[in-house]
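Q: Protein A?
A:
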Amino acid sequence: MRFLILMVTFLLSLCALDAAAVDPASLPKIKVSKLGLYLEAREVPEFLKAHAPKVLFVDVRTLEEVLFVGSPDGLDGQASFGIMHYDKWDKEKNTFPRNPNPDFLSQFEAFALEKGVDKNDPVVLICRSGDRSAMSADLLSRYGYTNVWSVVDGFEGDLAKDGPNKGKRTLNGWKNAGLPWGYNIDQNKVTMGR
């Protein structure tokens, strides 16, 4: 029995080592989190399986992104890190501004409570391309969460810098890895009405 426990512990530690293969020095500054825990999208399904049932998988994109771009299968919830402001226009960024969501922490913690996940259990955050998941991880770490993983390539992936797909999100990410996703949203897993 003791041998079995040691083997399971060893195998779980291998999963964690594999997941830690993302070199923080290779990441743009905006994708670096204080906890330094990173996954590539293609690693997430195996990571979730290895840590089940005490792992929480949360999408931190806006509700509009989840509804119109799709979302990964297996999410435990969606809590927007930022809120879009459609009554203003950011001329410099050529888009609508997005401001921090003051309810993010309480929305996130509702999903953690429902799943029975505490502040030391693994949390996996995903956004469009890894920026907001890193910022969300930093916020959660300030509130005592110690095991928060950021998906560095996110749901849509990074922008191609050249070639026929220049400016399109075709390099990596959940969708480009061919991982399961869809447009069907479980009302109990989004923050509207919470």
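Q: Protein B?
A:
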Amino acid sequence: MSGEFILRLIGMFVGGLIGWEVGNYLAVAAAAEPPYLRYVLAISLAGAGLGLVLTPYFTTRPFSWLRAKIRQVPAHHLVAGIIGLIVGLIIAALLALPLSLLPGKFGEVLPFVAAVISSLLCMSIMILREKDIFGAIGMRLSRESVTVKDNKVLVDTSVIIDGRIADLVQTGFICGTLIVPRFVLGELQRIADSPDVLRRNRGRRGLDVLNTLQKESRVPVDISDMDVEEVHEVDSKLIKLARLLKCPIMTNDYNLNRVAELQGVQVLNINELANAVKAIVLPGETITVQIIQEGKDAGQGVGYLEDGTMVVVEDGRRHMDSKLPVVVTRVLQTVAGRMIFAQPEGHNVR
């Protein structure tokens, strides 16, 4: 039995009692002649029905809405707001006595007005100027700590499954907190439980990568309960949450990358980073590559550099499973990455 159902029953009972009392009052006020029990009973049943229907809108629904909003607010804003509220109430308490001595209605109303205004004002000041205020009172630990605390990066499912993020954070290029929302973890678990063997293996690898990040990462990894309950798709949730937190999204998903950029959200794409740091070779340079498979055209052989760049070698098929020096003829940048075309050293470069 759910809590909402119990609250509905309580609301129905309370509504019935209120309806009974209202019915009796109306009957007496209208000087109705007996028997008027059926009218009282009808109003009581109407009150019970209203209580059954409307109770969640005054209890669970506002609470759920408030909980969702609190999840979206960063913790340091909540702390600053609570401190501001306490300071505002202290100021209101100090003003209450002199304001209560004012004549007439002023002495009754102004203490309450002062409490509301001072609380809201102090909360606003604390939230807007929290860094300056905490720094002035010595609560800021160090520049590095503030940087790590303030910088946040939302992590997408595709990056966790990819696995390279575990090596990337060890290099120190990422400074800040990696935030993995609970709904991303849920999607990862659904992939790990998939009946498809390939998807299941990818999901389990992602869970292993996330476990490694939590244990060995050089930056904090936060499994966050922050959610956007009015949005259902994971990608849309990430974009909405990134806009609320004003932080980038780390992803390898091409579609999420483009949609996020269209909505003004910064994207950190590991594939683009990998392409950016690949070794640059120019036509005429000599490199060594091992031919491991045949190419699409006749006589071609294909090998790969250490960074994964594909090298297509003309007349390289006859050198299968062997290393040989090749001369770069041209470099082609594609959506999938960089491709290098070459010829065995000693051939005439066209």
